[in-house]
Structures are given as C-alpha cells and as structure tokens.
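Practice problem: predict the structure.
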Amino acid sequence: MDALVVVLVVVVLLALVTGGAAVQAVQQYQRGVVLRFGRLLSTVRQPGLRVIIPFVDRMRKVPVQTTVLDVPSQNAITRDNVTIGVDAVVYFRVSDPVRAVINVDDYLRATSQVAQTSMRSVIGRADLDTLLSDRDAINGELKAVIDAPTEDWGVSIDRVEIKDIALPEGMRRSMSRQAEAERDRRARVIAAQGELEASEKLTQASERMSAAPGALQLRLLQTVTDVASDKNSTLVMPLPVELLRFFENATPAQVAAAPEAVRRAIDAAGGTAGVTAAPTVAVPDEAAEAPEAPVTTGDREGPS
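Answer:
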C-alpha cells in the first residue's frame, strides 16, 4: 500500500513537471521561436499559452518592443581635422524574431557595435559645421548606415539621434571669437545702413527747407527751445558762416553799418528774422591821466 502511494506521488509530480514544461506563456510583447531537436520550426508562436513537447522542443522568447540603445561617446576626427567626442542614442526593434535568433548570436551587442563603428565612419566624412548645423542630415545618414547590416539580423532601426558633441576648449574659444566678429560685422553694416538712410532723409529735408526760407529759421528756434528746456547754464547758438566771414574781413566803416550787413548775411543763409546789433561803445585812444598826488617825505622839520 505504501509503495502504491509513493508511485502515485511520483507519477503526479512527473505529470506536473511535464505539464509545466509543456505549457509556455508568451507575453503580448514577445514572440516565441521553437527549436525541435535543434531544428527551427517555421511557425512563430504568438502571445498566449502555447504547448510544446517537453524535453524535445526549446522555445526562445524574443521581445519585439522598441529598444533604446545608448551609444557611448566616440572620439572621432572630422573631415576638416577636428577631434571631437560624439555620443548618440539608437531606437530599434526586432522585426523578424527568427532571423534575430538564427542569424546573430546576440543582436543587442551586435547592434551596439555596429552603431559605434558606423558613427565614427559618418563623422569622419562630415565637417564640423555640418555636424553642428545640420543634425537631421547626419542622423538620417547614421540611420541608413546602421540599418544596412542589421536588416539581415531581423533588426529594424527606427531612428538615430546625436545627443551631444564635445568640442576641444581651443575650438570653443575660436568659435566664440568668430561669432563675436560676425556680430560686430553685422552691427557695423546696420550702422552704415542707418547712416545712409539718415543722409538721404537729411538731403530731402535740406531740399525742402531751401524751397521755404522761413523753415530754416523755425527749425533753429525749435532747436534753441529744445536746448533751453534742459536747464543748461551754457546756450550754444548756431550762426551762419557768412556772418563770421563778414566780421573777419570787415573794416571800421563796415562795422558801423553792421545791422544792414548782418541782415544781408542772414538773408543769404536762408534766415528771415532780423537781428539787432549790439550798440557800439566808443573807447578813447588814450585814457585820461589822473593828476599826480604831491609827494611827501617821511621826515618833517619842526619850526626853527
């Protein structure tokens, strides 16, 4: 009786072990590849409970999710002989589980190595300006280069992104000076364009004022008003150049008739308002001499 119980227990345990080995659960994000006596079965097991022959079949579950692979920083030399460090990230997934199991030993490690070597190759064919300014083109080229060998492994590359480009310190300083010089050049060009436009507007204003002589005088009065509003202690008044030349070459007789000459000079300069000359004060050629005071000596004699 005891022997029969032991046999039954052993049978039950064997049935449980065999049943557990025969029933395999394939997750939704997985696909099952079955090898029977080392030979591949063409049918790929879909998600769910799948039955295999225990101790005969061996199932390998391959995830078909998108995998994120971080490519470590790679030191490379660009086409214009600049040494840089570039790190990237690769997004890929298994499109054919059979080839991912049969054609390559470890598709994760193989994809990582291909990504590293391909990144160094692509960087060597591009110059620094392209790497910094046209990331999309470099990413597309990297995707095409990496996807070529991995296609035979049943691995599909979704996208490749360059995360960071490490530049030498000397190159950073050179690029900073270049950017500063470019900004200075643009500032000079903008200032020159402003001067050109200002000169054109001033030319138009001078032509307009020359057609109306009173406009120049009104503009002068407006300028005086603006300067006087700042409460300055010194007021600078502009004078026509013709007026200064008149006083420089004037004779005494012309100075006496200065109001008429000043009016003519202002009219010639475009002014309309009259200028009243300051009254002249006659200064005698020789100053009147004061009477000399009597000179006394320090010692006085008493009455004798």
